[in-house]
Amino acid sequence: MNPEYIFTLFILIVLPLLYLLILTKKTHKNLPPGSWGLPFLGQTLSFLRAMRTNTAENWVQERVKKYGPVSKFNFLGTPTVFLHGQAANKFIYTCDCNTLANQQPTSVRRVMGERNIMELSGIDHKRVRGALVSFLKPEVLKQYVGRMDEEVRKHMEMHWHGKEQVQAMPLMKSLTFNIMSSLIFGVEQGARRDAFVEHFQHIINGVLSMPVNLPFTRFNRSLRASAKVRVMVKELLREKRQALKQQHTSAAASANQDLISCLISLRNEDDSVLLTDEEIIDNALVIMVAGHDTSSILITFMIRLLANDPSVYATIVQEHEEIAKNKASGELLTWEDLAKMKYTWRVAMETLRITPPVFCSFRKVLTDFEYEGYIIPKGWQVMWAACMTQMDEKNFPDPSKFDATRFEKQSPSPPFSFVAFGGGSRMCPGNEFARIETLVTLHYLLSKFTWKLSCRNNSFFRDPMPVFNDGLSIHIKPRKL
Fold first, then answer.
1. DSSP state, residue 31
2. What separation in angstroms does the CA of 77 have from each of 19, 106, 346, 435?
């Protein structure tokens, strides 16, 4: 037999088995129930298949029915404990940093970098989160409403006006990427932004894939695209540092004009830099990928909802008519206008409850701990689908029914059962950015167009984010509020 073939089998089968045995031999008495499955692969393929066929919820329910809310399995070559339910959400979101640490699958960590906020814990997490929030807090974001407004108008003029049929999902991805590119990187329309678009698409396609670095794999293409983006962002850092040095003579250079400029200007009390270049780059990548993808998915699902639900459509249009009639022609939206879009945001929240963009998350076990009577060993990873509690009738009566009035209350559900933006100290720092982006976009969609779905079959799958099979094709007509 070919020696290279034998060596490959050893790497893919024997080593993962030895790894699992080493990790589990000391705590074999009280491990959670479950099966390791195939060497290295474990249940990876069955889970990814469920994501691709939009049956991940069924995958979780069947697992919980078979093993209970705590079970073990092998995911992407790593021993994993799956936790389920509201108690699990609370435990993970409030657990101390000495027990659980942020950790994404190997593919995410390799592509996004090890210093991104999803990988950090303790003091480092607090420091990086504080830096990001300094740009993403409401009092700072107020000044960017006008810039988002202008990006949305340019997008509508270029891609919607004069068209009879469009694909909503790719257009929303393009729009949110342009907004993020402008406000995160400070990169406006042109060749540089076009290059970012191409590379980020490869990054997104391979960020949650089997971490096999061979030339024909998604993971390999994602790694190569990540490396190219890093080179581009390093050049941006150099340019922006130079611009900040000249800010006294150039009004264009400002520490608050984009996230990159903000982060490189932050200092500790001793005037040392708050974040390293590696941390700035890794976190800019994460925010770009997570932010543009999640917002575009939310807006796309809202477009589908408004085409299917005349009652919700009529109510939301009325809200925007009231705002539009008090605006002069060409006048930009303001922070005060967004504050009046209360029903629109409740519709967005209910949309997130039923169809969350992110299905599952991960943590790394730093020390042995006990949960529900089982020992979870150091070195394992925790995986949980936090959003499953959003479709639990104990938390949301008649959970399959779309009802935006659920969010009229300040606390529409028990703690840690609605987790669209995380929970505890792990709340998403970009949730206010997403709110502004969504509301501005919906205002101009509703102000300028009516639409209907092009076909009855508007199903989607997860890869790992939701993707519509036909891009959510819609017929559009111009209108004016």
1. P
2. 9, 9, 40, 37
- Confirm if 314 and 320 have CB atoms less than 8 A apart: no
CB contact at 8 A, 438 and 301: no
Q: What is the pLDDT of residues 29-69, one digit of tens each?
A: 699 999 887 776 778 889 989 998 989 999 999 999 999 99
- Whole-prediction pTM: 0.86
181 exposed, middle or buried (CB, 10 Å; 0-12, 13-18, 19+)? buried
Coil, helix or strand for 363? strand
Output 450-456 pairs: Cβ under 8 A, ≥24 positions apart. 450/476, 450/477, 450/479, 451/303, 451/306, 451/307, 451/475, 451/476, 451/477, 452/307, 453/304, 453/307, 453/308, 454/165
pLDDT per position as a tens digit, 223-246: 999 999 999 999 999 988 888 877
Domain boundaries, the chain: 14-478
Instruction: List pLDDT tens digits, range 317-375.
Output: 999 999 999 888 889 999 999 999 999 999 999 999 999 998 988 888 999 999 999 99
pLDDT at position 445 over 90? yes
* Contact status, residue 380 vs residue 80, Cβ threshold 8 Å: yes
Q: Other CB atoms closer than 10 Å to residue 269's CB: what's the count?
A: 5
Report the CATH superfamily, name and number, of domain 14-478. Cytochrome P450 (1.10.630.10)
Count of all residues that appear for the chain in the document? 481
262 a known binding residue?
A: no
Position 11 pLDDT exceeds 50: no
In sequence order, the β-bridge partners of residue 460 are 468
Q: What are phi and psi of 290, to 5 degrees?
A: -70, -45
Inter-CA distances, 83 with 20, 28, 265, 333, Å: 19, 19, 40, 43
Do the bridges between strand 381-384 and strand 78-83 make them parallel or antiparallel, or are there none, so unpaired? parallel
Strand partners, 38: 42
- Tell me the CA distances in angstroms from 279 to 114, 131, 140, 381, one per residue in order: 9, 11, 21, 23
